[in-house]
Amino acid sequence: MNSMDILKEGSKALGIELTEQQGQQLVKYKELLLEWNEKINLTAITEEKDVMIKHFLDSLSCVKASPLKNEVKIIDVGTGAGFPGIPLKVYYTDIQLTLLDSLNKRIHFLQAVCETLGLKSVEFLHGRAEDYGNNKNYRERYDVAVARAVAELNSLAEYCIPFVKIGGFFIAQKGPNIEEEMKRAEKAIEILGGKIVEKIDIPLPFSEITHNIVIIKKIKQTPTKYPRKAGTPTKNPLL
Ligand SMILES: C[S@@+](CC[C@H](N)C(=O)[O-])C[C@H]1O[C@@H](n2cnc3c(N)ncnc32)[C@H](O)[C@@H]1O
Question: Which residues bind S-adenosyl-L-methionine (predicted)?
Answer without folding.
Answer: 78, 83, 129-130, 148
